Amino acid sequence: MVSRRNFLKQSISAMAAGVIMPTVLTENRLFASNVGANDRINVGLIGCKSMGWSDLSDFFLHPEVDCVALCDIDQNILAQRASEVEKIRGKRPELYGDYRKLLERADIDAVIIGTPDHWHCLQMVDACEAGKDVYVEKPIANSIAECDAMVAAAHKYGRVVQVGQQQRSGNHWHEMKKYIDMGKLGKISRVNVWANFNYAVIRGPIPNTSVPDGIDFDMWLGPAPERPFNEKRFHGSWRMFWDYGGGLLTDWGVHLLDMALWGMNVKGMPKRVVGVGGNWAYPNNCAETFDTLSVIYEFDDFIIQWSNVAGTETGPYGRNYGLEFKGTNGTLVANRESWEVYPEQNRIEYVKSMPNYKDHRDHVTNFLTCMKTRNMNTACTIDNGSLCAKYAHLGNISARVGTELVYDDQKKKFNNKRANLLIEPEYRKPWKFPKL
C-alpha cells in the first residue's frame, strides 16, 4: 500500500494547504529528481492497448514511478507493452491475464484501469478493496448502478481516485470557468454540446469467427453476456454496443457534459431528460448505439442539450465537437483547441483563449501529488466522474425507452419501469455485481 512508503507518509505543506486547483501545475518540481530505491511509486496497468498505455506513458514522465505489472487479455499486446516498458525503465514488468492476480501484489501502490467500460466497476472496486489507489478511465462505468458502487468503494476504503476526464486539468478550461463565473455573458439560458465523429459508425456486419490466437475472449467479456467472437464488437469498436459502452454520448459526451455542468455549477440530477435517437443517418450501421441523437436536460432556468450525428465530422462554428454557452450578452464557444466569446450587439468584448496542451500530463501529476499528500480531492474525483457518467446514461436510457424521464438519485429509480430495468446490469456468472 502507498502508506508504507516514507515519502508518501510525508506531508508536502505547500500542497497540503488546500490543494483545490493543483491541476494547473505543470512542472515536475513536486517530485524527487533523484529517487532512492525505497522512494518509488509502483503502478500496475490493467488494459494495455489504448488509453491505458497513453495514461502510463504520462506516469513515466515522473522518475519515481515504476510499472511493475501489466494485465491484458491479449497476449500479443502484453508482449509488445512489456518490451516498451523494459526500454523505458530498464526492467521487464510481470505479466498477467487476470487482473485479480495483479491486485494480490502487496508492492503495487496504484493501478491504472484502461479496460472497456463494462469492466471498470469490478476492477475499480476490487482495487480499492485491495488497498490500491486508482486512476480509472472515463466513463467510470457502463451503468448508473455501477457508478454508485464505485463511489461507495472509493469512500469505504479511503482510496485516492482520479477519473480520466483530463479537461479538469486543462489551463484554458479553468480560464473558461473563471470567465463564465464573472457573469459577463449575462443570463445563460442554454448550453449546447455536440460531438460528430466518423468512428462511431460501423458499416456492414461481418460474420462471427473463431477467437484469434492469444486472446482470452471469455475474460474480455467478463460480466457481460456471453457471445461469439466478432471483430466488430472487439478492439476499437466495442464502444458502439450497449453491453460494453454507450456510443458518442458516453465517450465524448462525458468530457463535454462535464464542462457544461461545471460551467453551470450543476451538482445533481436534472429535473427531467428527453432523449431521441436512432440509426437514421446510416441505416446499415451495425452499431447498436445511435448515430443520430439529441438529448435535452432540463433545469429550473436553463437547458443543456446534447447532439451527435456519427459518421460526420463537421459542426457548429467549424468545430466537429464542442460546447456553446448562450448568454444574453454573448456566446462562449469552447473545445480542446480554444474557447472564444462572440459578443451580442457589442455588449461585451471578443475574447479568445488557447490551451497549453498539457492537460493530460497535469492530470497525472495531480493524481500522483494527491497520492503523496493523501488528498482525496483529485482534479476529477470519483463523485464528479459519477455525475458526468450518469448524465450520459440518462440520455441514452431516455432515447432507448422512447420517453422523457425523471430520475431520483436518492431512491435510485426512474419514473418509468422500462427505464428502471436499465439501471443495473445483470452480471454473467460467475461474476457478481459488487454490493457495498
What can you tell me about this protein's structure?
This protein is of the alpha/beta class and 436 residues long. It is built from 13 helices and 16 strands. The chain has helices spanning 6-9, 13-16, 51-59, 75-89, 99-103, 117-129, 144-157, 171-181, 217-221, 247-263, 359-373, 382-401, 417-420; strands spanning 41-46, 65-71, 94-96, 110-113, 133-136, 161-163, 188-195, 272-278, 292-298, 303-309, 321-327, 330-335, 338-343, 351-353, 407-408, 413-414. The strands form three sheets. It has an eight-stranded mixed sheet with strand order 8-9-10-7-11-12-13-14. The chain has a six-stranded parallel sheet with strand order 3-2-1-4-5-6, with helices on both faces.
Tell me the distance between the termini: 21 Å
Helix content: 25-40%
Total helices: the number is 13
Catalogue the unreliable spans: 1-37
* N-to-C order of helices and strands: HHEHEHEHEHEHEHEHHEEEEEEEHHEEH
What form results from the Cα inertia axes? Answer: globular
Radius of gyration: 22 Å
Strand arrangement within the widest β-sheet reads 8-9-10-7-11-12-13-14
What value does the average pLDDT take?
92
Largest sheet: 8 strands, mixed
The fraction of residues assigned to DSSP E strands is 15-25%
**Number of distinct beta strands:** 16
> Helices and strands: which structural class?
alpha/beta
